[in-house]
Amino acid sequence: VALPIKDKDLFRQQCYINGQWVDADSGKTIDVTNPATSEVLGTIPNMGAAETRRAIEAANAAWGAWRKKTAKERSVVLRKWFNLMMENQDDLATIMTAEQGKPLAEAKGEVSYAASFIEWFAEEGKRIYGDVIPAHQGDKRIVVTKEPIGVVAAITPWNFPAAMITRKAGPALAAGCPIVLKPATQTPYSALALAVLAERAGLPAGLFSVVTGSASAIGGEMTGNPIVRKLTFTGSTEIGKLLMQQSAATVKKVSMELGGNAPFIVFDDADLDAAVEGAIMSKFRNTGQTCVCANRIYVQDSVYEAFAEKLKAAVGKMKVGDGLKGETQQGPLIDMKAVAKVEEHIADATGKGAKVAAGGKRHALGGSFFEPTILTGVTSDMAVAREETFGPVAPLFRFKTEEEVIKLANDTEFGLAAYFYSRDLGRVWRVAEQVEYGIVGINTGIISTEVAPFGGVKESGIGREGSKYGIEDFLEVKYMCMGGI
Ligand code: ADP
């Protein structure tokens, strides 16, 4: 399938290792399909441990010269990469929509969000300050410096095919570290297009390599190889735990952005129209396939019906369709496995007494398209209360008091994002302080930005991405004690 892009060179079906475009050693490939049409877009190399090892060794070889550069010199290259991403925003968005399914407008938004991490960290790399500490003895001086941790391995998911990469590559490269990336097998072309632009920006060979293929073989080499000093992962909690175990053997530093089960609370003093707008954005963005999507919507008793009605009206206006064809607000789900999970959650809820207030079934468009769905009368014993649905299902729970809903919100092993709507200042502080989450959206459904720290507590992860906190994960502290003064 020929994609409608201006610069055909951005669409690559080979991997980028040590500055070379290469096939798998075995010559084997994997098909990549468009979830909106089920058409095969092309193939990617089916690589494994050997190719990954070469990428890691090349990264290590490139590291010395890169870390010796000044922050400003590194920043100049990163800035070029950012500019190229923005100049090619339309093509990058088209590639993304074709492999991922999100509406083109959302894909364009993601490209600029993705680019923002490169721009931001290009600047932040200049502010990696150390410390001088008053010494404990008169003839000593204590200096603390921060150094790049070394070779970084990154594994990223399909829901944000560009931004999950640049959030890791931006701070790693700015801090002076090379990075080897395994993108999701469903969405490799966005990653490979980023590599084309990195090459054009003048990033030296070996500093950003992209390896596609067997997740377990590539992941095994990334976690087992002692050259890799840091693993940064975004994906499911299940795979995150496995990678942490694998990384333990060589005591790698890890960053984990894992699953969520976001509560979205609407109090009786909320601006209901704003809450509906926030719920739509938080719940249905990317067809419900983000780790910060509202998963459990708690509505206070006295406004429950009014909120449900308004949400239903808003959902009724959403247009479902192929993201590349005209105005759509909701694309397909990533695959049929995702559809099956959404159906299971709906069946489980309705089997236990919930009602379908909107949608509830596969969309007439077929394939993995699904109707935006609202469930009412949802209770804590249903699967949607415990597991991330990762689809367009808004389950509405009813609650009575602030204390009760805080308890419900925290009753999960996850702790990524929480949202609530209230106009009572006292309540805003009380609730914000008591929810056990890394990110709290107050009177807003959209919290992602490169300037703020994104990350979770409990089983939602370790570390933060974006902001001044996000670069720390790629640095080691060195303490120098000078005596005999
Ligand atoms: P999702 O449900 O988003 O697909 P996964 O955690 O399965 O979540 O996938 C996230 C990333 O982890 C993808 O790049 C995937 O290929 C990769 N992955 C899956 N299994 C493994 C594994 N055993 N080792 C390393 N990476 C893996």
Describe the structure.
With 485 residues, this protein is an alpha/beta fold. The chain is 39% helix and 21% strand. It contains 15 helices and 20 strands. It has helices at 49-68, 71-87, 89-100, 104-124, 163-175, 188-200, 215-224, 237-248, 272-284, 304-316, 336-351, 383-386, 402-410, 425-434, 467-472; strands at 15-17, 20-22, 29-33, 40-45, 131-133, 141-148, 151-155, 179-182, 208-210, 228-234, 253-257, 262-266, 294-300, 355-358, 373-378, 393-399, 417-421, 439-442, 461-462, 475-482. The strands form five sheets. A seven-stranded mixed beta sheet has the order 14-15-16-13-12-17-18, sandwiched between helices. Strands 9-8-7-10-11-19 form a six-stranded mixed beta sheet, sandwiched between helices. The protein has a three-stranded antiparallel beta sheet with strand order 5-6-20, with no helix packed on it. A hairpin with a 2-residue loop joins strand 1 and strand 2 (20-22). Helix 1 (49-68) packs across helix 7 (215-224), helix 2 runs antiparallel to helix 4 and helix 3 packs across helix 4 (104-124). It is globular, with a radius of gyration of 23 Å. The mean pLDDT is 98. Adenosine-5'-diphosphate is lined by residues 155-157, 182, 184-185, 215-216, 219, 235-236, 239, 242-243.
